[in-house]
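ERR on first pass: missing label on line 2. Operator R.T. fixed the label and resubmitted. Corrected input:
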Amino acid sequence: MSSPMSTPGGKRGRPSNPSTPASEAATSPPAQRRRGQPSSNGDLPLMPTSPPTDMPDPLQDTSLFSSPRRSVLPSEVDMSSPLMYGTPSSRVDGTPRSGARGTPARQRPDLGSVRKSKQVDLQSEPVSDILTTMQPAGQRLVIWGTDVNVATCKEKFQRFLQRFIDPSSKEDENSCLDLNEPLYMQKLEEISIVGDPVLNINCGHVSSFDAELYRQLVCYPQEVIPTFDMAVNELFFERFPDSILEHQIQVRPYNALKTRNMRSLNPEDIDQLITISGMVIRTSQLIPEMQEAFFQCAVCAFSARVEVDRGRIAEPAVCRNCNTTHSLALIHNRSMFSDKQMVKIQESPEDMPAGQTPHTTVVYAHNDLVDKVQPGDRINITGIYRAVPMRVNPRQSNVKSVYKTHIDVIHFRKTDEKRLHGQDDENEQRLFTEARVQTLRELAAKPDVYDRLSSALAPSIYEHEDIKKGILLQLFGGTRKDFSQTGRGNFRAEVNILLCGDPGTSKSQLLQYVFNLVPRGQYTSGKGSSAVGLTAYIMKDPETRQTVLQTGALVLSDNGICCIDEFDKMSDSTRSVLHEVMEQQTLSIAKAGIICQLNARTSILAAANPVESQWNPKKTTIENIQLPHTLLSRFDLIFLMLDPQDEAYDRKLAHHLVSLYYQSEEQLEEENLDMAVLKDFIAYARSYIQPKLSEEAGQALIEAYVEMRKVGSGRGMVSAYPRQLESLIRLAEAHAKVRFSDKVETIDVEEAKRLHREALKQSATDPRTGFVDISILTTGMSATARKRKEEITAALKKMLQSRTKTPVMKFQQLFDDLRGQSETAITKDQFEEALKALCDEDYLTISGKTIRLAT
Amino acid sequence: MPSTNDWINNPLGVVEEMFGKIQVETLPHDSYNTVPSLNDVPLHYLKPNSLVKFRCLIQDMFDPEFYMGAYDTVDPSTKAKVLRCGKYKDVTECGVDLDSANMVTSERQTFYCVPIPGESPWVKEISSCARVVPSTSYVPSRQKRSYEDDDEDDMDTQPQAQGTPAAAEAQGNGDSKRQETEAPSGQKASSPPLDLNFPLPGEKGPACLVKVYADWDSFKLNDTMEVYGILSVSPALSALSDQSDTSSSLILDPAECMETAEELRVHSPPASLVPRLHLIHTQRLAHNNPLLPPAALEDTLASTLGEMVSVRAELLAYFTQLLLGDVLAAEYLLLHLISNVYARRDVIPLGKFTLNLSGCPATAGPAYTEQLYCALQQLVPSAYRLSMTLQNMNQLRLVPRKDYVANRLLSGALQLAANTSLYLDETQLEQGQLDPAGVRNITALGNVISWQKVDYDFNYHQMEFPSNINVLIASEGRSLLPSDCHVHLQPQVTPPNMEAYLGSALTAQSSSQLNKFRLYLTMARTLDYSISEEVTKAVEDDFVDMRKDDPQSISADDLHSLLGVARLLCLSLGQSALSTDAWSRAKHIETLRKSRSEPQGCLNGNEP
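pass 2 clean. output:
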């Protein structure tokens, strides 16, 4: 039996333990003080001779308190003997499996190997301030070193289970439960049906129900959780006496509010219940850890079991049966082992201060929590923080003055699990304080919020107001709509933007800024990225030899923005993967036996340079950037970034740049603030605001669309397609989000229309006619150019018809003839196109340089 | 009050004495110079548990560790309990009472520090000379060393009698120290020698684990600083030493066997190789130029400000000679050397000035670019020449990468201290194919040049670290990397023997002259700068006028670079405000420069 002296000094020996009321006034914990008082024997007669009325009821003997409780007579009590303490122990053997309907208890290595906590009779404690939380009279037993009374704690917890109703249940895991019934009773029912004997308890619920119980849970998890286990099992088998479980129910608390960040862990947290978030970087192999050693005497075959105490086995030196010394041998395959796994977690990049490297923490997972997480998973861990002294050399007595720390995990919760189910999880990651929400709402209520935000975006880049507004709307995005029931699948909510223009018009800077602003952004350059780099590739994991899917930039920026610089320099095969992403928002992969579809709900912000390095105003957008029109039509907004060349503009630009180079510290400070506000504003709006179209707005959109169609129809051209209508809707929704409005109203539609028109004016103007012509973007050719092509084809056909006598002609000769006939210049390309059109009509065939008329 | 001597020789005693009293451990100010430095003195000559200093860069940050801040020791014979202070110690005294109520657990942070990467030889030389060797206690070990060193060191001896051994040491110790420090690891044939993780290949010197006791959040990765701390070299700290003889017991301990052997090796390297330093005082270094000590900054500034113009002229003449008589290129080189990222506006770093010096004579082979680098290395406090051969680009690790097996940040050549000169020699580039690693390296270089940031590879994600590296690209044609400013070299002289020509130019400079240049370059960089209202107006007018004449002639980007050049020009003249003169001069040299590079610029479609 280990003496109380050997309890690790980490917690109990700490002189200041702010959460323990007992130690607030005293310099050492109660138990310690008590040991040092030989006169306390005199207090003992106060103890009643009969077992205390509020002693744990017999059921606990069957579960965790394995050793039968003796009613201790005061005369037998020796102060130095541990016998005077009740011993809750989770030892399995030695107890007939009675009571809890034959369900075996299961060891909880997650609560540590020191399971022999003792109860202390508080009545004999001379210090009265401990009693503040206790009932005024009666015998009180608390677990040694804590202020936890098993019976009260159990009672409180049972009351919590029976009465707690979650007032604001939003979590999807509770979705099938009745919100007006006690939450955890329903969960117990679930356990009885499903048979998975684990009860997850949200600490937030406990704290809202009983703050005192929560405090005890956080401060003394090692003692309180077994008590909870007891309470739950009692309650459960009372209710569902017939249910059969693999082992007794284990309580797994999660979401302890005490600590959220790995960086804020400090010595105060040792042996307490904590919750931290992080990313798994490494998992070890499964380690069998001995829980109980089995010894057998070589002489008489007498067997003995010894529990492992803090990693050490006390080998019995003498056989109790035959009294032979050193005859006991360890029998490995009859010893008890439990599974253990080391998991290394690293701080999530969001939690880190700039300029520092992430911290890592070692976590031990036990039993069924082994292999629950994989490297790369983002998880929240609830567990008990431990520190053990490191020995320089087991044989030396001086120890390194350093502790090894780790967390014994009690509960894993993957934070990115829900992403797979297609829901936004950003609201889980970002918690906004009341005050923050208030400031954001105030800002959103301002009439000029839209202008304010757009000017706060990349302030170092001058002007380009409309482009910034476009990007701002892209950052907010539209509302996600699901039409999968009607067979159309998801509608894209993300806005895609293409910037094209002269080199050196700070396109790259704008991209960099956006990339730095959004939490899940990716930045790639068209020059340096391949198709697999953008999508996903399969590789062999060097450790496990399994093929694993490595995701590329587009998948990584799911729910974020993928910035692609030098879009025009991308190879065609790379660009082709974008088609699916930009409309369907998924990526289909069929490689190395892995066929799957990944979500890639990413907005794309691309920048392209004109082919001739300088923008040629005489050419259309398509001709200038040489991108396939199929891709171009998938961009909601295409902006040109050109030098305006105007004096007032130049002056302002110069002023802007000069002040950029010389600005006081405070101004810089102010700006940083703006960026933080902007970040929060966007994150808040994205996760909480889901605007819907109002009646008027819908009407306005219809009108706008009809108008756009009309513009072109006057000249025999189509100037709008349904895709443009969808763009308009998305932009209007994004604008409503900027206003924190749940409804899309006419002003939103107005702005969407204006912005769309501006972008069109820039990108879809036919340089030959000066009209806006959407067909440049949708078919890659302006209507005038198409008309011209038809004319040439007709002329060529006519010419060929006139000379049917010679069915075979030379290419060059025909070209020259046609040029001679025509009054306008015909380029070779145009001629070839015309030939091809006729070829398609089966009017002629082309073979090499000869043209043969079809007969 | 403890004396300086006490602090140096028995710091733990001083701390122990102070422990319990309400007193902050402060170092007497006069002791800064007398503390022996780990940079100069080899480890085995330093007394364990004495106070030493170390000029270093934070290469990696380990996890915080909990230690016994205070504990009771029990004397086995008398059973008397003594309360001890656990601060600044790695190993406790015998007989710790683990269950004592007085035990206090405290937290400290460990940083892995390496000597400043690429530190120029002259910096090491001067800083070791400046040191005044402390008296008494240091003598025994010093004499012992003198015997063995005097016959192998035939370096020039300094007039200072006291400083001699240390100074000679600093120059000659490179090899001898290396042998000494590597000896312990060499003996263990079973394990490969420990990689000390220096950012640059071929670096020497001790690495150090610095334990920080307070305010560790204010330290950032890649900070340069001078730390004063208590040296701890207890052999018990080494993970390797006890692994061999107690391996069986190690496995039994569940807490210990979880860590991989690799991680143990890295986090507890032999103390003889990587000593521990318990930090008492830090001095952040804005620069590592020993000629300009931080304390004397104000005085030196005031006294030398007047001389700056003349020194500038001399330096310009020197550069002109180096650059084969090209005055314009020399001027740009000077501006480049004093550039410094002084602010960041959202994503744009301000003040960077990457220079691409094209037209380096290739006929002379690598000699010219190499010699040029040598000349620059003599002037700047830290520099590194990256020869951009295909092999280097494909194989070198430029970007630091997190090694999760050993749980450390594997350093890369781009993990450099602020204001390090990175000299990219593109003349070495030959035809061939870049593999994916090579492409990543080129991208990383491009990121440093354009955004002054390095994206460290954390396997599951990347993390951006701001950098402040002066990049100079020497190439034949225009570089394939972006640059802020491209100057095509126009040699005025063609010396028949390039090597001899440059060699004579190099040796012609006296050391006092070089010191003047060194001081000048560091000073110009630290000056403040502002633009007055009137000048702002004038610049605006000028810009509008230029645009009016020919909109194509000047773009917003051109104005950016023009403002940058004007700023550097002012600083180089020791002026702290932009004058119209400097503005027109900047315009002038920019026009000259552009007229040179124009015919070339159009050929290559790269964005500037």
